[in-house]
Amino acid sequence: MDYLEWTKDLDTGVNVIDKQHRRIVDYINQLVDATETGDNESISDVFDGLIDYTITHFTFEEGLQEKAGYEFRSAHQRVHKVFIKKLGEYKKDFDDGNVDAVIQVNRMLRNWLINHIKNDDADYVPAVQKMLGTEKKSGWLSRSLGKFFGGSDA
Ligand SMILES: [Fe+2]
């Protein structure tokens, strides 16, 4: 499997979100590496890490949308929910002994993530950017990052 390259068109323009998206891409590439080794235990670890990180990222992103009063946040949240459910199903499939589930999830992740970033995420960016501009001095963002990721950085 090939690595997923980060391309400029995946940048949303919201720095904190782009960092987290890059981290998800790193996880996808780690999953490619683990798959190459064929070691089921490493695959399972990376898989779990990817799911965990994605859930945290989505929760953070939803908080950002909430704070920004983004109009379509409940629809966006539903999309996240469905995706997490799907991820869990692939993981279960893998745990049940279907090793190909890791290849299937990789394919799904690439398509889904790229499409989601370019369309769904791009849509909330203006609202979030506007909010972040006015919230800069209150320290809301760094507090929120600390809460979710345990540090001032994602
Ligand atoms: Fe999203």
Automatic annotation (TrEMBL):
Keywords tagged on the record: Iron, Metal-binding
CDD domains membership: Hemerythrin
Keyword Signal: no
Chain segments annotated as transmembrane: none
Transmembrane helix in keyword set: no
InterPro entries: Hemerythrin, Hemerythrin-like, Hemerythrin-like_sf, Hemerythrin_metal-bd
Classification via SUPFAM superfamilies: Hemerythrin-like
Residue ranges occupied by any Hemerythrin-like domain in the UniProt entry: 12-127
Pfam families the UniProt entry points to: Hemerythrin
GO molecular function, a single term: metal ion binding
Family: Belongs to the hemerythrin family.
Protein name, UniProt field: Bacteriohemerythrin
